[in-house]
Amino acid sequence: MPLIVQKYGGSSVADAERIINVAKRIGAVQKSGAAVVVVVSAMGDTTDELIELAHTISHEPHAREMDLLLSTGELVSSTLLTMALRELGHEAISLSGPQAGIRTDTSFGRARISRIEPARVRRELDAGRIVVVAGFQGITAEDDITTLGRGGSDTTAVAIAAALQADRCEIYTDVEGIYTADPRIVSGARKIDEVGYEEMLELASLGAKMHPRSIELGGVYRVPIYVASSFSDTPGTLIHARLVEGMAQQLGAAGVVSSAGLAAVSIVGSGMQNTPGYASRMFRLLANGGVNIDMITTSEIRISCIIDESQGRDAVRLLHEGFQLDRS
Questions:
Q1: Is the pLDDT of residue 246 over 70?
Q2: What residues contact 32, with CB distance under 8 A and at least 6 apart?
Q3: Where is the ACT domain (predicted)?
Q4: Per the domain annotation, does 196 fall within a domain?
């Protein structure tokens, strides 16, 4: 029997109607013959609302208490989703991060998973249940609750998938996959069908939807990660070890991240490792478009240029068009 780990983001479980729709999706996967573990984020803007509430009570909330407070958001969504599954006739059980065996260090607010003890999850799966795990949280050796930081539910899902040796981890959110550029900036942005772990790690570090730590885990333990929308049946993006034949010879994506008056515009692609000329072409495209470069940083598969924030959107459009990323 195949084992699938699914993760649903906050927008996917933002209200009762969406929770019921997600429950139907999960139920359909189980009926197809797969065992299912589900990791959920807090509903909608719950985490932000809890942070705001804490700061109305305390000017500087204690880190331990803040983590315990924030962990409640995922407990609410996981239990409500389990209720929805049971209402639809499915055997299901919700588990907190600690109950699911997620052990972390003591870095409150940004804890790292030290290990997963999946015995309880396996036991529930063996009993034929859908297991719904509260993401974003774990427990220390001193029995304190910790949170994993922003995007931590992605990391939870991939870590559980690795511990259970799942067939794949599916990340469902409000976008239909990974794109060659932000569709809100570049109208011709194209969805990438498949991408390697290294390329996706670079994209994640540049602000793409996935959490970088989750990509690192996926790469180390070779967990295939599928990113898709929970609001449609449109095929998403598969992140895995095998590079797509065409992708190995070309650029994968372009993106822009802005901060404090500056923007980093980047191109990412495995083809840079063995093919010269990408840097000069990038610099020429920006220069011809009137974009001034303040600083340059590179890795084996990424080139980033620091530019004025006001030119960020124009720069990513120039690169997307210049490298013909809108073409399959």
A1: no
A2: none
A3: 267-328
A4: no
The predicted structure's pLDDT at residue 256: 57
Range of the domain at 106: 3-174
The answer on 167 and 256 residing in a single domain is no
Instruction: Please report which helix (H) or strand (E) contains residue 253, including its range.
Output: strand 253-259
pLDDT tens digits for 4-36?
999 999 999 999 999 999 999 999 999 999 999
Do residues 164 and 267 share a domain?
A: no
Residues 6+ apart with CB under 8 A from 58: none
Q: Tokens in use for 236?
A: 């998403």
Token pair 């029997």 is found at 1
Which amino acid would we find at residue 240?
H
Say if 188 falls within a structural domain. no
Domain boundary (136, 156, 174) is at 174
Residue 160 has pLDDT above 50, yes or no: yes
**Residues 75 and 159 occupy one common structural domain:** yes
Q: Give the relative orientation of helices 152-164 and 212-221 as an angle to the nearest 10 degrees.
A: 10
pLDDT of residue 28: 97
Instruction: Please give the mean pLDDT across all residues of the chain.
Output: 89
Q: What is the pLDDT of residue 132?
A: 99
Specify if 209 maps to a domain: no
For residues 30 and 202, give the distance between their C-alpha atoms in angstroms, rounded to a whole number: 34
CATH code assigned at 73: 3.40.1160.10
Tell me which DSSP letter residue 272 carries: G
Give the count of domains, the chain.
2
Last residue of a domain, one of 112, 143, 174: 174
Query: Distance between terminal CA atoms of the chain?
Result: 35
List the single range of 90-104, 135-149, 261-275, 311-325 with lowest mean pLDDT. Answer: 261-275
Rounded to the nearest 10 degrees, how much is the dihedral formed by the CA atoms of 299, 302, 308, 313?
-170
In the 8-state DSSP scheme, what is residue 187? T
